[in-house]
Write a structure and sequence with these properties.
It is a single chain. This protein is mainly alpha-helical. The chain has two domains: 248 residues, Fumarase/aspartase (Central domain) (Fumarase C, Chain A, domain 2, Up-down Bundle); 82 residues, Orthogonal Bundle (Ribonucleotide Reductase Protein R1, domain 1), CATH 1.10.40. The protein contains 14 helices and four strands. The strands form two sheets. A two-stranded antiparallel sheet has the order 1-2. Strands 3-4 form a two-stranded antiparallel ribbon. α5 runs parallel beside α8. The longest helix has 29 residues. It is elongated, with a radius of gyration of 29 Å. It comes from Rhinopithecus bieti (Black snub-nosed monkey).
Length: 365
């Protein structure tokens, strides 16, 4: 089982690395593209498409590191006997402790492990299964967050997963483009997250040196966890290789919210031009309420800037409004953060997997 766990982790590691690599390319290309940020799924300050993608990448990088760690930490059981005492081997070698330890090391080396457990019962501790499936469950949480974001962005028409030319979004509504890949990932990720409960309960009921409570359960949950993670990563790689962004939709949404965000900058510009902060604040408050009413009550566009341009009070800064409303001035250091994150954390982490980066994901829809 330990050999199978190690080999299974070796299959997942390059797949996760490829997903991170594809998303890194996506983030780099769109590092400076402003987009509306959301907190509580309500409009917040601006970020960039690339910076948001780096939130996804950072979680996956943690998963990659944890997968590698749990893989490298695996220890072999070695030759320990029925209750872990090595009594039968000691008898075989006529009481020679050194030969027993040599055999233990030879078998461990032969199996490809650097270390073996010194202490075991009849089996290796089932805490190992908990550690492995905890990492896979954490990966499931990361993927669920990523694919939920993609699904929400698809609803906003800002981003879509790949959509085949002949793909049918809905049998009843031919215009629909349902994010079925992301939905599949979320569905499988929820299952993956629940599987860690099995090894937790199995480890807790291992009486003394061992009971058979574990056997049938482990045959199911360990295999399911790796098969589920494998399918998720194949699907997520396919998604990350074909993400589509709609900048004009993003730009339109920014135009709807940016005037309200820019009010503080407008007030500061007026104060610099000699205006009263209190008077300016009151003017902006009234105009903002009027513009909000147009948006909410009438379903119209945000016309706050037009109202400011039409108000003679703000004439000292009319020529500055375009600059004050430049979306790129509201994204802070997002693009620099993307660049630094990719160069200092992501690319070094992916370096050991360079030889397998060109493999494409095979996906049957």
């Amino acid at each position: 089982d330990l050999i199978i766990l190690r080999n299974a982790l070796d299959l997942l590691l390059p797949k996760l690395a490829r997903v991170i690599s594809r998303l890194a390319d996506f983030a780099k290309e769109r590092a400076s593209l402003p987009t509306l940020g959301f907190t509580h799924f309500q409009p917040a300050q601006l970020t960039t498409v690339g910076k948001r993608c780096c939130l996804w990448i950072q979680d996956l990088c943690m998963d990659l590191q944890n997968l590698k760690r749990v893989r490298d930490d695996l220890r072999f059981r070695g030759v320990k006997g029925t209750t872990g005492t090595q009594a039968s081997f000691l008898q075989l070698f006529e009481g020679d402790d050194h030969k027993v330890e040599q055999l233990d090391k030879m078998v461990t080396d032969k199996a490809g492990f650097k270390r073996a457990f010194i202490i075991t019962g009849q089996t290796y501790t089932r805490k190992v299964d908990i550690e492995v499936l905890s990492v896979l469950a954490s990966l499931g949480a990361s993927v669920h967050k990523i694919c939920t974001d993609i699904r929400l962005l698809a609803n906003l028409k800002e981003m879509e997963e790949p959509f085949e030319k002949q793909q049918i979004g809905s049998s009843a509504m031919p215009y629909k483009r349902n994010p079925m890949r992301s939905e599949r990932c979320c569905s499988l990720a929820r299952h993956l997250m629940t599987l860690v409960m099995d090894p937790l309960q199995t480890a807790s009921v291992q009486w003394f040196e061992r009971t058979l409570d574990d056997s049938a359960n482990r045959r199911i949950c360990l295999a399911e966890a790796f098969l589920t993670a494998d399918t998720i990563l194949n699907t997520l790689q396919n998604i990350s290789e074909g993400l589509v962004v709609y900048p004009k939709v993003i730009e339109r949404r920014i135009r709807q919210e940016l005037p309200f965000m820019a009010t503080e900058n407008i007030i500061m510009a007026m104060v610099k031009a000699g205006g009263s902060r209190q008077d300016c604040h009151e003017k902006i408050r009234v105009l903002s309420q009027q513009a909000a009413s147009v948006v909410k009550q009438e379903g119209g566009d945000n016309d706050l800037i037009e109202r400011i341009q039409a108000d003679a009070y703000f004439s000292p800064i009319h020529s500055q409004l375009d600059r004050l409303l430049d979306p790129s001035s509201f994204t802070g250091r997002a693009s620099q953060q993307v660049q630094r994150f990719l160069e200092e954390e992501v690319y070094p982490l992916l370096k050991p997997y360079e030889s397998v980066m060109k493999v494409k994901a095979e996906l049957c829809l």
